[in-house]
Amino acid sequence: MTSIARDASATTPRVDWVDVAKGICIVLVVMMHSTLGVEKAAGAEGFMHYAVAFARPFRMPDFFLISGLFLALVIDRDWRLYLDRKVVHFAYFYLLWLVIQGATKWPGLAIDEGIGAVVHQFLVSLVDPFGTLWFIYLLPIFFVFAKLVRRLPPLLVLAFAALLESLQVHTGWMVPDEFCARLFYVMLGWYGAPRIFAFADMVRGRRGLALAGLVAWALINGAAVFGGVATLPVVSLMLGVAGALAIVSVAALIAGSSAAEPLRYAGERSIVVYLAFFLPMAATRAVLLKTGVISDLGWVSVIVTTVGVVAPLALHWLVMKTGWAKFLFVRPQAFHIDRPKTPLRETGLQPAR
């Protein structure tokens, strides 16, 4: 959910397990949207419904925790550079892909309700995130908050964020609701980064113990989810942290293997997938359900998920290979508010480290 790679000015080497973890997270996110979309359209559930439910406590917490892992490297930058990398960067891609996604829905809305309805929906999308784009809308808000509280005691900020999560705020407006629900994990990623990296190293050194811990975690998480207690205050926070660490453990264990390479590749470009999965996902779902070539909704969801992950990566490869429509994934210099004196290498869409 910022493919939490690095910004264009970062020179820090990539960490393999971090990219693998992001790959796992982006697959889980696409899987959720794909499965729930298929089930809603079909009016029935498939076997993937249970996988989506199992992942719910930790799917987004882990993405936000990873989003905060590298904040310490940039938090003390001057405000102009920080805002350029952490706010303007994401605002550009949000507005661009808002228009792209809206183009698939707004013509029909204009025909049914008039152009005023389209203008209204666009303006609403500026304050209430549009569809699947809410993640990159919220990230700049978290980054600005982190900058503002960087001088405060970490335990105080974490306690405040834990309280917000436990209050389970539901106003109907996504910005405050998701801010309260996810702030703790961004702050935990930031403050706890040294310990999280040390934890990943420990997992790699004690594989047997790590595997036993993962089995225990899976049983507890599954019991909480299917027992109906996973969303209770405090319980949800505990499951979120435990699940995030479980994903870190899995990523640390498999990173460097050939089996993990697709996840690492997707994780390194997870924002690319996040921005562009909606259209191929929706198109594949419509074709499969309309033709009925596959009757099992679980397998339909698997195929839709696969296309939703692979198609954006293929588009990104094509764009970067040809240089055509590069603006889809690389922010043009014209949309920077802080231009470096020396050219910076931009290799793609690289959200903030």
List the helices and strands and how they pair.
Layout lengths: L15 H27 L5 H8 L3 H10 L10 H24 L3 H8 L1 H11 L8 H15 L5 H14 L6 H18 L1 H13 L1 H20 L8 H20 L6 H8 L1 H7 L1 H14 L5 H26 L31
Helix pairs in contact: 1-2, 1-3, 1-12, 1-13, 1-14, 1-15, 1-16, 3-9, 3-12, 4-7, 5-6, 7-9, 8-9, 10-12, 11-12, 14-16, 15-16
Explain the overall architecture:
The protein has 353 residues and is mainly α. The protein is built from 16 helices and no strands. The radius of gyration is 20 Å and the shape is globular. The model is unreliable at 1-12 and 342-353 (pLDDT under 50).
Total helical segments: 16
Main beta sheet strand tally, sense and closure: none
Total number of strands: 0
Secondary-structure element order, N to C:
HHHHHHHHHHHHHHHH
| N-C termini distance | 14 Å
Low-confidence runs of at least 5 consecutive residues: 1-12, 342-353
Radius of gyration from the alpha-carbon trace, in angstroms:
20 Å
Average of the residue pLDDT scores: 91
Structural class: mainly alpha
**Helical content class:** 55-70%
Strand content: under 5%
Q: What oligomeric state do these chains adopt?
A: single chain
**Shape category:** globular
Short description:
With 353 residues, the protein is mainly alpha-helical.
Search tags:
0% strand, single chain, mainly alpha, disordered N terminus, 353 residues, globular
